[in-house]
Amino acid sequence: MAASQPAAKRVYTRRRGVLLPIFSLPEKYGVGTLGKEAEAFIDILSECGASIWAILPTGVTGFGDSPYQSFSSFALNPYFLDLDSLIEEGLLTVEECGAVDFGSDPSTVDYGKLYENRLPLLMTAYARAVDRPGYDEEMKDFEAASPWLDDFALFMAIKEHEGGRPWYEWPEGLKHRDPEAIEKIREKISCEIGFHKFIQLKLSEGWERISQHALEKGVLIMGDLPIYCAYDSADCWAYRRNFRFDADGRPTEVAGVPPDYFCEDGQLWGNPVYDWEYMKEDGFSFWMARLRRAAELYGILRIDHFRGFASYYAVPAGAPNARNGEWKKAEGRRLFKLAEEQGLPVEIVAEDLGFITRDVKLLLSGTGFAGMQVMEFAFDGDRKNPHKNKKWDGDAATLKNKIAYTGTHDNPPLAEWWESTDEKTRKYAQKYAGTKDLPRGIVKATVDCDARYAIIPAQDILLLGKGTRMNTPATDSGNWCWRMTKAEEKELASRLKELLEK
Asked: Tens digit of pLDDT for each residue in 360-392?
């Protein structure tokens, strides 16, 4: 019998890109949208030789404005609806949009003013749209293609009717989705339900335009999917059997991270954890729906907190901290095998940071997903540091199945990190970059490394420091606000082209 031949080593496509949330685009109406500025940014990426636009989660945000705490795993954020497109359709006027105060600082998002002033403007557009011939047929087609839409629109409309209260504080019939109570409230708030469906229809049209433009320019949009759902969400309300809830809709366990060197109490996130046993028996229908939705939106999907698919840290509900949690087995292996069998057309990369154990490594290697490297974590002198990489030699066969970042949205911008780091770390970084021109040299070395993908936050390309951080974990204000100005965008284009020159 002839000896078996070893499997051929996979050869990867090398891609470089920029991390810039949609809300950070320079836009005249206070927040980045799926409009002309998004198309212009895609043009910049393409012209400079970049082929990935990495964004943050695109869901509907609530208190705290975090894209990782959304009212839905499926719906898009109404803030991203481009007002100019509504003007072009005749649903709004230039004067109406120009009269609204969206904030006066082009370098930041004023969420308070957006919340107060943007939705009333969209309601005006909705009132005009529903009177147009053909609208009902268009909406029926959209509803048929969006099985999540009705539950989401109903959830949001009831939430507004209940003064913004979370679903678990609603009247019993609404909280538990009693058919008679639901039918009664549908009749009462049918206009509000229709409004939320209208917003999602227009967002879908905007996303289609942007996606098609990116495809034509050779740019992949890389989305970001949080592993957990917010407790106050249409997901937990409508699909609650997938979560570890008691009979009254209260979590029995919540997600977190155990105590470590940095936090003696651990981190208590508070998100409901999944009932993986039920999901396995159910064929992972909820997760498969999430992945199918992601495949509709993105060319590449980054899944946040990937280690939670191998095992997750569950804390008893009501606990004051995360000290007394327990590690429990998840069913990620079966889930991703099913996704592979069904041929979901989206490439997945894994945020495999944090407490990484053997089961996580086995899951990552079994899926073939790319794991992450973060350069701000690489310079401790440890030869086995997983965040270390090498300069690419130009041979596609030597590319590593990794996605390298200078830093993530949860890290300080590289320039701020460099100002605060110690001398020992600086020496290791200088050796890695091969230059004393730091932190610029770290950015260039990351672009030139042997990871198949390299993603540079816009702030790091611009070498922006303090005051431009996207998020400071464990804080609930001042986050998710940074916006790139038009002048900075022009500078970014110049620097990015220089970085990607061979």
From this structure: 999 999 999 999 999 999 999 999 999 999 999
How far is 427 from 240, CA to CA, in rounded Å? 51
| 65 catalytic residue (yes or no) | no
Catalytic site residue 410?
yes
Please identify which of the residues 151, 351, 448, 489 carries the catalytic annotation.
Answer: 351
Please tell me which residue in 84, 304, 359, 491 is annotated as part of the active site. Answer: 304
Which DSSP string corresponds to 311-373?
Answer: EEEEEETT-SSSTT-EEEE--HHHHHHHHHHTT-S-EEEE---SS--HHHHHHHHHHT-BEEE
Q: How far apart are CA 398 and CA 500, in angstroms?
A: 19
Choose the catalytic residue: 89, 160, 410, 491.
Answer: 410
Summarised one tens digit per residue, pLDDT across range 17-68 is 999 999 999 999 999 999 999 999 999 999 999 999 999 999 999 989 999 9
Q: Is the N-terminal amide bond of 413 cis, ω within 30° of 0? A: no
Euclidean distance between CA atoms 476 and 67, whole angstroms: 12
Catalytic residue list contains 476: no
Residue 194's nearest CA partner among 131, 237, 115, 238 is 131
Partners of 254 in beta bridges: 272, 315
> What CA–CA distance (Å, rounded) separates 488 from 502?
24
Cβ–Cβ under 8 Å, residues 177 and 237? yes
* Sheet strand arrangement including 400-405: 347-350, 300-303, 220-225, 52-54, 15-19, 451-457, 400-405, 371-374
What is the 8-class DSSP label of residue 300? E
